[in-house]
Amino acid sequence: MPYLILSDVHSNREALEAVVRDARGLYDQILCLGDIVGYGADPNFTAEWMCTHSVTSIRGNHDKLCVGLDAPEVYNAAARASAVWTRQALAPANAAYLSNLPRGPLRVGDFDLVHGSPADEDEYVIHAGDAAMVRDLLDASVTFFGHTHVQGGFLYARRAIKRIAPEGGVLELEPDYRYLLNPGSVGQPRDMNPKAAYAIYTPENRTVEFRRAKYDIAMAAQKILDAGLPNVLAVRLYEGA
Ligand code: ZN
């Protein structure tokens, strides 16, 4: 059964809707790697959407931060401001939904979901060196992660770790390797491509398709400005950085 894999939606309604349109007919079940809220202006829409579509989701660091389960001191000013705004904007039912999201790793079928890394939901796996540090913690042959907002991930061969550049579209998984794969961020891409990122994983075919969907960035950015959120959160949507 094909899975639609979402991560880092970050209260971006326009991006989420564009991804769902783009992925229509390609999947049976929806999974999410966390950071449903934070940064964007539609936290109630994205949280409620996950709930009403019975998405299997783990929590991200911003989900924790925005419901008061994480200390704001370690975050930058824009993230702190958005967390304060999101916390007062969230309807009680949506705040409760986010508070109850499980912490990863979460096993689905024979693969795992994590937000940051298998050891720490707040850890960034950016470089091959970071990927090497978590190698022994990978329980499944395929683990999906988010948090970096960079689509792609890593392939673990016996003696080497290779970075996966998602330009090729469909990745065919080799049986002898392990994979740590990132669908990219739906709502705030940081890999210099502003289009909303996601993946379709089909375990039966051993394929992961990395996809991008064009969305109405101007609308999402304007809502951020109208909400009085920091400018930088609107500008970076155009840059994909
Ligand atoms: Zn995030």
Protein described:
The protein is of the alpha/beta class and 241 residues long. The protein has one domain (3-239): 4-Layer Sandwich (Purple Acid Phosphatase, chain A, domain 2), CATH 3.60.21. It has 8 helices and 12 strands. It has helices at 13-22, 43-52, 61-66, 77-89, 92-99, 128-133, 217-226, 231-239, and strands at residues 3-6, 29-32, 56-57, 106-108, 111-113, 142-144, 152-156, 161-164, 170-172, 178-182, 196-202, 207-213. Strands 3-2-1-11-12-9 form a 6-stranded mixed sheet. Helix 2 (43-52) links the parallel strand 2 and strand 3. The longest helix has 13 residues, at 77-89. It is globular. The two termini are 33 Å apart. The mean pLDDT is 96. The structure holds zinc ion. Zinc ion is lined by residues 8, 10, 35, 60, 62, 147, 149.
Name the descriptors.
Purple Acid Phosphatase, chain A, domain 2; single chain; alpha/beta; 6-stranded mixed beta sheet; 8 helices; binds zinc ion; 241 residues; 12 strands
Secondary structure blueprint with pairings:
Blueprint: E1 3-6, H1 13-22, E2 29-32, H2 43-52, E3 56-57, H3 61-66, H4 77-89, H5 92-99, E4 106-108, E5 111-113, H6 128-133, E6 142-144, E7 152-156, E8 161-164, E9 170-172, E10 178-182, E11 196-202, E12 207-213, H7 217-226, H8 231-239
Parallel strand pairs: 1-2, 2-3, 5-6, 6-10
Antiparallel strand pairs: 1-11, 4-5, 7-8, 7-10, 9-12, 11-12
Helix pairs in contact: 2-5, 7-8
The site of zinc ion has 7 residues, from loops.
